[in-house]
Prior knowledge:
The complex is a heterodimer of chains A (about 575) and B (about 625). With about 575 residues, chain A is an alpha/beta fold. Chain A has helices at about 1-10, 15-40, 40-45, 60-105, 105-110, 115-155, 160-210, 220-270, 275-290, 295-315, 380-385, 410-415, 430-435, 440-450, 455-460, 470, 480-490, 510-520, 555-565, 565-580; strands spanning about 335-340, 355-360, 365-370, 395-400, 400, 415-420, 495-500, 525-530, 540-545, 550-555. Chain A is elongated, with a radius of gyration of 35 Å. Chain B has helices spanning about 1-5, 15, 20-45, 45-55, 60-110, 110-115, 120-160, 165-170, 170-185, 185-215, 220-255, 260-275, 280-295, 300-320, 380-385, 410-415, 430-435, 445-455, 460-465, 480-495, 510-525, 560-565, 570-585, 595-600, and strands at about 340-350, 360-365, 370-375, 395-400, 405, 420, 500-505, 530-535, 545-550, 555-560, 600-605. In chain B, the strands form two sheets. In chain B, strands 6-7-8-3-9-10 form a six-stranded mixed β-sheet, with helices on both faces. A four-stranded antiparallel β-sheet of chain B has the order 2-1-4-5, with helices on one face. In chain B, a hairpin with a 2-residue loop joins strand 4 (about 395-400) and strand 5 (about 405). In chain B, helix 4 packs antiparallel against helix 13 (about 280-295), helix 9 packs antiparallel against helix 11 (about 220-255) and helix 10 packs antiparallel against helix 11 (about 220-255). Chain B starts with a helix and ends in a 13-residue tail after the last strand. Chains A and B meet through helix 2, helix 3, helix 4, helix 5 and helix 6 of A and helix 4, helix 5, helix 6, helix 7 and helix 10 of B.
Amino acid sequence: MLNTYNNMIRAAGSSAPAMRSAFSISILSAIVQGITYGLMFPFFREMLAPTVSLQSLLPFVLALIGLVLLDAILRYIESEHEWTTQMDAGHEVRIKLGEQLRKIPLEYLSGRQTGDLNVVLSGDVNHVVMIMGGLFDIVLRTIITPLTAIAIIFFFDWRLALALLILFPLAIPLYQRIREVAARENRVSAAAHADVTANLVEYAQGLAVLRATRQVGEQSVRLQESLKNLREKQTVATQWGTVPNLFMSTIVQVGILTVTALGTYLVLAGNLDIAILLAVLAITVRFAEPLSIFAGMATMFDFMEAGLERIDALLAIESLPIQAPVQSIERFDIEFEQVNFAYASDDSKTGEQVLHDVSFHLPERRLLALVGTSGSGKTTITKLITRYADPQAGFIKIGGVDIRAVTQSELMENISVVFQDVYLFDESIRDNIRMAKPDATDDEVILAAEAANCHEFISRLPDGYDTTVGEIGGTLSGGERQRISIARAILKDAPIVLLDEPTSALDTESEVAVQRAIDRLVENKTVIVIAHRLSTVVAADMIVVLEDGRIVEHGTHNDLLDMENRYAAMWAAQQQARQWKV
Amino acid sequence: MTANSSRSDELSLWGIIKPVKEKIYIGMILSALSGVAWIVALVLLHPITTELLSESPNVNRLWSLGGAVLLTLIIGFILRILSFRWSHIGAFELEEILRTNLASHLAKVPLGYVVTTGSGKLKKILMDDVMSLHAFVADSTPLMARAYVTPILILIVMFLIDWRMALVSIAMFPIGLVAMRFAFTDYEEGREAYDAANEHINQTIVEYVQGMQVVRTFDDGTSSFTRYSDALTTATKTMREWASQTRYGAFVARIMFASLPTLVIVLPTGIWMLQNGWIDVPTLLLFIFLAPTLAENIIPLIWLSQLIIMSQAGAKRIGTLLSEPILTEVEMSQKPANATIEFKNVTFTYAERKDPALKDVSFTVEEGTVTALVGPSGAGKSTVAQLIPRFWDVSEGRITIGGVDVRHIKSDDLMKHVSFVFQIPFLLQDTIRENIRLGKPEATDEEIIEAAKAAQAHDFIINELDHGYDTKAGERGTRLSGGQRQRITIARAILQDSPIIVLDEATAFADPENEAKIHAAIANLTKGKTLIVVAHRLSTIRDAHQIVVLDHGAVVEKGVHDTLVENNGVYARLWAKFKDAQGWGLRRNQTDEKDKRAEEIIVNDAINVPEPLEGS
């Protein structure tokens, strides 16, 4: 619990002091409540006295009212802290996580599914950070109020107090053992759950195919099996899941009954005032319910712990280090020297080496085309230039400066990337373009759009440049989105341009427009292009042919054709494909 | 009670749990009974204390009364566990039933609906929303039964025993309720603003996370971060306002409906009544036990209603999906006479749009011929292709296959007649063999290999995959390129051997080597079939028997390549653009300087002289 507490305080960030004082007040209020319960004793004594007199109880009545009021005041102060603290803490964690996403290595960022990250930023913050204070408060009260009450019982009868005190701590180790079993069962059903998810996604994606073979609905064997399996696992897990609750409630009830039986025995033996027994009973009954739901609380704590760990794990990722002394880029030739690279080993990539001794030097304002089959390392080369990850050996220099000695923001200032998948934010077209250069004037934005061949269609939109992407999202064609992204890049006017041949998935009309836009973008720039259609890079200053992460051929188009080797073969295959007809 | 008011509503929680309502009701009854048992145990304290306080306590009677308490507690306890199990097992069964129903329903709604909704959104409904019901079905229903039954029963018992003390016991309630009412005015409105703010936060996060990879190729994320943090700050402010509004209500509720304030009133008043001889000691004792129990039972009623509101949203989405209209199916399929396809005056409008996507489209595709659909983006090519296998049903006109309206063919028969080769290949997370077999479940292994060979997939399956045909596709770590996946799906289509093939831009993403193989595979697939191809690369369809040119949802031209080029219409324009696009190359216009430049670029420079490259 101390561990959870520390994690919580850390997660609370600058709200930690407020949270700590909220907890202190909670503890105080819990003690006040315990003492209030202790006041039962004089009342019960008076109740069972031969002559009952309310007047003699007056000080106690006043004390009772006073303590309840004090508790109310404490709770009020605490509630002042609680809500705002949690919201501030949640807000702060989200800002921290958001900043972290800007810093963590891109390799890590793209290795994580966006869904996973959403779970942390959205779900974990909501279900952990925003409720942890309230949850911890309940736990504190559940423990401290009974302990205070038991301490008071000691003054009246140590035997009953001792009986109460012994029973509860005894239960804890046993309880934890049982909970482990339940947790194991829960993991099993979580796995079954993941299985169902995978099958359902597959089902939804493959419905067209599955329908043709009648493997739908109840006939969908795989889906049905995984659903049945999930239910079975859940049922077993539920049976185990009830055990810790059951155990805790049993302990509480047994505790009360034991104390009652012991007390009754003592009363009958004349060793105990019946008033004390009844008061103890009236107090302990009040704790029965909170203590028995304590088991459920423990599950919540596990859940919380896991969420906090996920947040911590994300925050713990270190950004790629910047080598000292920090330098700035003055020239824009690109140099790869004996670069070896393997993706970090994770679930999706196997960690095998994808680039072997790749070396080349691209002078300023020249165009280099990367050619090769998928998986040959073309994309990796462009990624490394943006410092997606650092190579294991060799180095990459821009203008003679190792990119590891340049700040990420300076590096990215000098590079424009145009890829096939275009991401547009749900804001105005204008802001989407301006993103490349936040201080650009409206005229500059329009000039860039004109150069990228998108001014015309943007002007035709209902609100022109102020149309938000969300309103028209679906109606923008691939080519139009592509041109907006090129407008961005043109506005950015970075000296280096990386292109992942952006036209191959477009229809003819868009293609021509995008091609014109690219022509303007690459004017006078240092360009590296990943080429799928060889005909588009015939004029490249240099074509590099990659195979399994190695440079196998290089030269101009004509040089390579003369070699009559890989490139020539690819060229022939593509020429042939062009002739292909259905 | 919310239960009655909304029970009629099919989309409500109570409507959705119908399939397992017996189990849920049993769970609720058991839970209510466990509440009763707890009260009985408390009430039994009355005779016990009476006995204890008598001049000469009857020990035997005491022990048997004690035994009775123990017994009721045990019974109550067992009831509670049973209730928990019934409701949970009911809830799990409901999850299974709902997912099966949803999956079956998805198989009956127009495929277009499935495609446009997207697997991500469907997953959210089938997994997350179904799961969100669990909190309601499994946890809330038993609690609800107990939360309603216990206070009512306690009230009855208290009034039966002594009405004066009963009134004293609930003295705090009016104050509490009035205070809460007062504090919770505008509650609904605030709650909506709060929910909206929360939703806004989630959207902002999704957008920020999704965009991050792209944004980081742009700058260091400053622009989108500012947007993110601004949105968060605004939303947090709204939430804090709501919180400060409801804080008092929550505070009052917590203070009033707790055991101690009730005891503050019950203890002195009770002793005063005792002093005046209105009640006896055992009665007072009973109230000291019962009155706080009553107070403590009010709080769950407040947060239960919150829980129900939260589950309601999920129930609504599930209900909406389940009520999505299905494609009408005929009882008996009519058999198409041949594989000729005919569009007769087809007009089609997407459900949520005003303008028709297709207007009065008519054309005929003779059996065994090739028809290409051509047009600018948004012209309706894909829509035409999707109407044939009934992704959607036409709004007007009709589509026939071999003279039979597609709506008169059962959809699984129809799917057997038409193979659709999609742009994005779909593979099951199963072996390559099973993925191909999907085209014809009764196919032998030999047939599968034959199909794979015809689809140019056999070689890479045997040579490049660790377990050949038994390699699992789609699993993480199995790296199949787009072109390879495409060829596996073509093998499946070859095995399926449908007389009609619809091809949608299948080669756009492939690299050159794959492209040639895919072409060969497609040639094998389409041999002797009726083929409709949605084409972008116009060179591929130059020899088509018929080219149908669409523009803005209408057929503007029909004919063969040469005539259409001569016509100087839309097609001629597209063709000119296409030739233009084909001729494009980066910096084509600057070739004269090229040779000079090539010398400047040094690959594998002097520091690292690589071994000479051997020819392959």
